[in-house]
Amino acid sequence: MEKREQLYSGKAKSVFATDEQDHLVILFRNDTSAFDGQKVEQLERKGMVNNKFNAFIMEKLEAAGIPTHFEGLLSDVESQVKRLEMIPVECVVRNVAAGSICRRLGIEEGRELNPPTFELFLKNDALHDPMINEYHIRSFGWAKAEDVEKMKALTFKVNDVLKQLFLDAGMILVDYKLEFGLFHGELLLGDEFSPDGCRIWDRDTREKLDKDRFRQDLGNVIESYELVGRRLGISFD
Ligand code: TMP
Ligand code: ASP
Fold first, then answer.
1. Which of 3, 54, 156, 188 is 20 to 30 A (C-alpha) from 63?
2. CB of 64 within 8 A of CB of 156?
3. Rounded Cα distance, 233 and 226, in Å
């Protein structure tokens, strides 16, 4: 497979066409963004760390029966994926309150959410990713009702797999965001799973080990991503 022209460049990743219609290359860059692109910095090693982190998680999810776009690592900072027609919606599950739910609902950070919450957001930086519900998705034709149901079921299935994976490695999966797309009509998990798009706390100290370290200027951002990865058994050498 041959890498061809760049199709799209987001805040942290770029996407390239290949000589095969159904396959794309994702490049994980060192750019780190928060607050809808208002805060942007280059963090050394981040592209490599997130690429390998994402590969490890996507393989775990595939093994658990969750269909994903991931096909394999191509280099330290590139992966091969299936070309999806992306659904412009973010699916968020929260096991513990943090971030926007605390601000929106006046909930104290750290409160356990039982059952976990499921929220939908429109992927639109200019509008600051507003919260939506399944009726908006159907009315505006962003996805079919049956695919919304599948996104929800798969997002919770991911929770079953990853909550335990992180707990076994001494960490709490606080929340995470997933994006889905269609591959010849079949719904697959797309985008990435890395400490950029989830919250992970140390189980005992509750220290933040994810992108909140960047958002809140806590320092040691990539060192923490690597620590999480090493605890899961990922090698970054
Ligand atoms: P929130 O607390 O800001 O709503 O975010 C919930 C989780 O989803 C958190 O782990 C960060 C992730 N997320 C993204 O990765 N990108 C986004 O655009 C949004 C809104 C959330
Ligand atoms: N990923 C989004 C951004 O870059 C939101 C965030 O993580 O704060 O701006």
1. 3
2. no
3. 10
Give the distance (Å) from ligand 1 centre to CA of residue 198: 7
- How does pLDDT run across 139-198, given as a tens digit for each residue? 999 999 999 999 999 999 999 999 999 999 999 999 999 999 999 999 999 999 999 999
SS3 166: helix
Helix 145-168 vs helix 46-63: angle between axes, to the nearest 10 degrees? 110
Strand partners, 172: 201
pTM: 0.98
Tell me how far CA of residue 148 lies from CA of 132, 133, 159, in angstroms.
Answer: 12, 10, 17
How many angstroms separate the alpha carbon of residue 6 from the centre of ligand 1?
26
Q: Are 39 and 31 in contact (CB under 8 A)?
A: no
- Of 37, 15, 35, the residue nearest 25 (C-alpha): 15
Summary mean pLDDT of the chain? 98
Q: What is the pLDDT of residue 86?
A: 98
Ligand with an atom nearest the CA of residue 38: 2
The domains found in the chain, sorted by start residue, are 3-82 (3.30.200.20), 85-220 (3.30.470.20)
Which runs of consecutive H residues, i.e. helices, occur in 19-124? 46-63, 100-105
Instruction: Write the residue with the smallest CA distance to atom 7 of ligand 2.
Output: 34
Distance 197 CA to ligand 1 centre (A): 6
Instruction: Among 11, 30, 177, 225, say which to mutate for ligand 2: greatest number of ligand atoms within 8 Å of CB.
Output: 11
Ligand 2 site residues (CB inside 6 A) read: 11, 33-37, 211, 215
